[in-house]
């Protein structure tokens, strides 16, 4: 079907087709929102920034309300097509089992395969090109966690789910284990109805957060969030938070693991998100022995690549400091005691002192 680009075009039928094309191309769902969010969204963002909850993520303050105004980000935008793609790899070692084994490295399950930015961006571009084939040239841009776009707010407004108390998008039929992406377009597509929230009185995500980062329902202090500490923070992780991180070396899934809605989560069918290099069940000591060359080779095409080798080692050092005091763990730490990076040396010294302290406590007992 080819639609004329005119005021009389059947945009309702086009919207239906866009959703069909999206599902055919591997997306779990697609919904459409108007290119504007209510004033309350801007007020909430302003309060969050005033509290400093964004930490070192200066871009959050720099872009400010622009992330809530798609029509200003991309002039001419009338509609936002939101999509989601499931990422949980069914073949991965059980998350709870890895978290319970202090000698193993826990990596957030979204990061075990290929970089989702590339996967979703390519699929979104393909979807946008199908729309072009149907209506002719039109203005659009594709995004996936790559620009100041309020993905969760726009997806919720489009009825794809609701913002949970952990601030992630929740869907009644498939939980929250998915990526989001958007196409901002100048086509006047009919918008989908939003959905009311269904968290009720449940506070499991708030209670389980290892560092107490969910400071109130629907409010996260990123400065305490393990995902921020292990990915966004450039300097040393604050010492009081280090023991609370446990063996989580890249991101954190705890709030999603306990969410009742994720009993409906659907494993991914996307081959690009399959586990690579045994990252679902590797020991901390094994990963800590990687050379920079090994890191570059194995993390090429992975979202972990962007934190760099130095941050990778410093995160692992924290995990090793929290691990059981085995010969393997102590030998791995000793190997990096004099690492050229001040950040790595600081975290290694903390980890060794932590093990030494345990030894003295044991001797005293």
TrEMBL record:
Organism superkingdom: Bacteria
An MF annotation (GO) of this entry: cobalamin binding
Lineage, broadest ranks: Bacteria, Pseudomonadati, Pseudomonadota, Betaproteobacteria, Neisseriales
Annotated protein name in UniProt: Epoxyqueuosine reductase
SUPFAM superfamilies on file: 4Fe-4S ferredoxins
Compartment(s) of residence: Cytoplasm
GO-annotated biological processes: tRNA queuosine(34) biosynthetic process
Cofactor note: Binds 2 [4Fe-4S] clusters per monomer.
Organism: Gulbenkiania indica
EC numbers, comma separated: 1.17.99.6
The entry's keywords: 4Fe-4S, Cobalamin, Cobalt, Cytoplasm, Iron, Iron-sulfur, Metal-binding, Oxidoreductase, Queuosine biosynthesis, tRNA processing
Name of a matching Pfam family: Fer4_16
Residues binding [4Fe-4S] cluster 2: 209, 225, 252, 255
NCBIfam families according to UniProt: tRNA epoxyqueuosine(34) reductase QueG
Listed GO CC annotations: cytoplasm
Catalytic activity line of the entry: epoxyqueuosine(34) in tRNA + AH2 = queuosine(34) in tRNA + A + H2O
Residues that coordinate or bind [4Fe-4S] cluster 1: 199, 202, 205, 259
InterPro entries membership: 4Fe4S_Fe-S-bd, 4Fe4S_Fe_S_CS, QueG, QueG_DUF1730
Pathway(s) annotated for this protein in UniProt: tRNA modification; tRNA-queuosine biosynthesis
4Fe-4S ferredoxin-type domain residues: 190-219
Entry keyword annotation includes Nucleotidyltransferase: no
Subunit details: Monomer.
Required cofactor(s): [4Fe-4S] cluster; cob(II)alamin
Residue numbers annotated as active site: 145
Gene3D superfamilies assigned: 3.30.70.20
């Amino acid at each position: 079907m080819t639609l004329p680009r005119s005021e009389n075009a059947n945009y309702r039928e086009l919207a239906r087709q866009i959703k069909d094309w999206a599902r055919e191309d591997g997306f779990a769902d697609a919904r459409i929102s108007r290119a504007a969010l209510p004033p309350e969204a801007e007020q909430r963002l302003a309060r969050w920034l005033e509290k400093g909850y964004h930490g070192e993520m200066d871009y959050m303050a720099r872009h400010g309300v622009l992330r809530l105004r798609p029509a200003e980000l991309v002039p001419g935008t009338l509609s936002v097509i939101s999509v989601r793609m499931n990422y949980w790899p069914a073949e991965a070692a059980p998350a709870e089992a890895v978290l319970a084994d202090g000698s193993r490295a826990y990596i957030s399950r979204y990061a075990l395969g290929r970089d989702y930015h590339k996967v979703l961006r390519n699929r979104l571009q393909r979807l946008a090109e199908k729309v072009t084939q149907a209506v002719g040239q039109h203005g659009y841009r594709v995004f996936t966690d790559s620009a100041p776009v309020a993905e969760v707010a726009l997806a919720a407004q489009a009825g794809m789910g609701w913002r949970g108390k952990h601030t992630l998008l929740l869907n009644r039929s498939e939980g929250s284990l998915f990526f989001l992406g958007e196409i901002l377009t100048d086509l006047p597509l009919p918008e989908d109805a939003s959905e009311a929230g269904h968290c009720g009185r449940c506070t499991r995500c708030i209670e389980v957060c290892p560092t107490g980062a969910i400071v109130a329902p629907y409010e996260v202090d990123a400065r305490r969030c393990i995902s921020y500490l292990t990915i966004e923070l450039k300097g040393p992780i604050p010492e009081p938070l280090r023991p609370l991180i446990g063996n989580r070396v890249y991101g954190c899934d705890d709030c999603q693991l306990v969410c009742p809605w994720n009993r409906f989560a659907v494993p991914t069918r996307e081959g690009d998100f399959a586990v690579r290099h045994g990252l679902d069940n590797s020991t901390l000591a094994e990963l800590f022995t990687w050379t920079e060359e090994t890191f570059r080779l194995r993390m090429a095409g992975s979202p972990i690549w962007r934190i760099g080798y130095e941050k990778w080692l410093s995160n692992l050092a924290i995990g090793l400091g929290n691990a059981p005091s085995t010969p393997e763990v102590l030998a791995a730490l000793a190997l990096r005691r004099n690492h050229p990076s001040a950040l790595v040396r600081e975290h290694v010294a903390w980890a060794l002192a932590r093990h030494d302290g345990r030894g003295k406590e044991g001797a005293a007992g």
